[in-house]
């Protein structure tokens, strides 16, 4: 048909069904000062549908009236706008008001002009954010419908993109909030909450993981009344069947009444979440859930890994009791609270346990320790804390009246039955009244140990309280502090270097600088004796600055000798690291020696990485900007949350020598080493194992994926010249 007769296209359309108006309509605003334009526009489009939805019209007869209506009309799809109204360019000003003042970038604007000269088409399109420009004379019914339909299609696509963008932003925010949660159960419950929030539905579901050939609930909410750790049984078939299908098909599944999300784990164990739906969800929300599931799966995997690592690091694997590290934390908390005045710490040492262990075997000894732990926990006041802090040493912590030496000794009056044998053992106690103690938790343990040693020298099976008269150690510390200050001034301190070796190729890739002290008489003072004294006295600041310069200078000498890719690791004391001039000291050492920052690594302990997170993150950021890398030393002996570890932007984790030593014997040591390696891989961090002393340890570490090792298997700490000679032999060997 010709354009003049295209109005006939509308004559044969069937009447609109009664329910059509009930469907949500596309809202179109008509802005024109000519009432005939309003009526003809409505007549032309009123009976039509676009994408299965009818049109609804909003009318404004001037730009000013349109401005007023736009303040409360929030979901307009299209504005049909006249250019010339109360002023020649009133329509163009309204366009700018819509885009710039109201910030409405989604609504589509079609300019209609009866006087094209007032707003030339090219100039209007170029200067204003409009979507179409038509003269009223050319807008027949068919062309008007085509223009409006195209504008609505564009509006719909923009809204879908905005909803998608908003959903992705919500996923990023959800991931950030989840990373702040501690523990697998809290993280899993957070996943359910964030998934429900993402699709705008109430929290109702369960998150599970395979365990022992079944599905175990990690978290549940809403109508899914399952406690964390419970196994799903036959009566949970409505949950169990879709969860098993999701895990088997390794993909998320969506039904009208529920969705099951597949969360792939990196450590060999996948997760699945069941979400009960109050109403079906569309394709966009399904895609967002798929992105969310992939995004949080890595975090869930890492949190589970970290939870196991923390459990192994803070609890004794034999008895399940808190270990020394956890006890120190509990002591630190108690010493800062009101309860310290009436609290006592007691060490309980099993007398002659080594002889029993040697005579009857380690298995028998382990059973005996388990029986002692069980008796202490079950027979003493339930408000007391019982811990295992050594091979045959337990600890009892709590109220003075409950930590009663007589009551503890009485527990050993009855023999223990082990493998059908009655074994009579006694215990010696060393106690500290915390109300009289001035130090921290670690100091309290030391004082209790001093009291225990005193009790052993007097009479086995007895007890002794620590007193201030036992302060000989403090006096020794003061004497050593003066000797250290004089020794540093005389040049008695020196550095040795222990190589760090690639476990795959046996090639040295770096070395750790280690501080040593040889006194005037030629004797060596162990670092664990004089470094705490240096920290306590503040002398570590000057010593630490000297260590930085000396290690950087040695790095430059090694590079001049041909070892261009050699990494120098330098330990940083907590006191030195917290000094306000530390960053300046580091930069000065780099500048004065000319050492390349990318080959310098600073080692901080895990306990240092836990304190004052905001300050630490800022300081580490400044250090990283110098080009120097960061390693966390003795990793696995402290407590680092996953989110905190990620924020620190460290480059390397060092497995503590304790876990390396145990790797060939105790399953606990091996599991912790493996978890640290896996955690490092998941976070993109390098790993180095300390204290590697035999080939078997090196082989197991290499098989677990640890790239670097350090220890006496490869070389003892070497003087600078000895290091050069060792490197030359190493190069010839590899």
TrEMBL record:
<dbReference type="InterPro" id="IPR050706">
    <property type="entry name" value="Cyclic-di-GMP_PDE-like"/>
</dbReference>
<dbReference type="Pfam" id="PF00563">
    <property type="entry name" value="EAL"/>
</dbReference>
<dbReference type="InterPro" id="IPR001633">
    <property type="entry name" value="EAL_dom"/>
</dbReference>
<dbReference type="InterPro" id="IPR000160">
    <property type="entry name" value="GGDEF_dom"/>
</dbReference>
<dbReference type="InterPro" id="IPR029787">
    <property type="entry name" value="Nucleotide_cyclase"/>
</dbReference>
<dbReference type="InterPro" id="IPR021800">
    <property type="entry name" value="DUF3369"/>
</dbReference>
<dbReference type="Pfam" id="PF11849">
    <property type="entry name" value="DUF3369"/>
</dbReference>
<keyword id="KW-0597">Phosphoprotein</keyword>
<feature type="domain" description="EAL">
    <location>
        <begin position="477"/>
        <end position="731"/>
    </location>
</feature>
<dbReference type="InterPro" id="IPR001789">
    <property type="entry name" value="Sig_transdc_resp-reg_receiver"/>
</dbReference>
<feature type="domain" description="GGDEF">
    <location>
        <begin position="341"/>
        <end position="470"/>
    </location>
</feature>
<feature type="domain" description="Response regulatory">
    <location>
        <begin position="27"/>
        <end position="151"/>
    </location>
</feature>
<dbReference type="GO" id="GO:0000160">
    <property type="term" value="P:phosphorelay signal transduction system"/>
</dbReference>
<dbReference type="GO" id="GO:0071111">
    <property type="term" value="F:cyclic-guanylate-specific phosphodiesterase activity"/>
</dbReference>
<dbReference type="InterPro" id="IPR011006">
    <property type="entry name" value="CheY-like_superfamily"/>
</dbReference>
<protein>
    <submittedName>
        <fullName>EAL domain-containing protein</fullName>
    </submittedName>
</protein>
<dbReference type="Pfam" id="PF00990">
    <property type="entry name" value="GGDEF"/>
</dbReference>
<dbReference type="InterPro" id="IPR035919">
    <property type="entry name" value="EAL_sf"/>
</dbReference>
<dbReference type="InterPro" id="IPR043128">
    <property type="entry name" value="Rev_trsase/Diguanyl_cyclase"/>
</dbReference>
<feature type="modified residue" description="4-aspartylphosphate">
    <location>
        <position position="82"/>
    </location>
</feature>
